[in-house]
Amino acid sequence: MLREKKINRQGQVRESKGIQRQRKIKLLQREKSKQTKRGKMMKQLQQLTPLQVFGKNIKHDSLVSSGCKNWKKALVIFGKHEMAQTHKDSVVAWKSYQATSKQVNIAQMIASANVSEIVERREYLKRIVAVTSVRETGTPFLWP
């Protein structure tokens, strides 16, 4: 271990070239794996037709049909698009497609959805109990 690190004239510890090469190789491998994941996702997207994803009757909003021409107002346009029902429907369809493409058992999908719902409802109950207890005791409301 001591041989792998060198000390320069200023007394700073410097790693050997072999360790630096290994780190570069690991970083390159991570980048390649990210690129392959992106490539797989793009291939999946290219194979799908709009009818498969969105159904027969769909109305496209202006962002989908014409794109964004005024980039000064891009954030506003993207915000409107995210709030549009077509975007929400397509996100739900895409998530369900991804879940089924991984060939996960439907029972497991339902169970995981139930667990997340239970956790969410517990959070709501905690908030309701906190608000009602504050009302009954008359203490100031301090949310953690």
UniProtKB/TrEMBL annotation:
Residues 1-24 are annotated as: Disordered. It comes from Merluccius polli (Benguela hake). The lineage of its organism: Eukaryota, Metazoa, Chordata, Craniata, Vertebrata. Residues 1-18 have a biased composition (Basic and acidic residues). It comes from the Eukaryota. This is Uncharacterized protein.
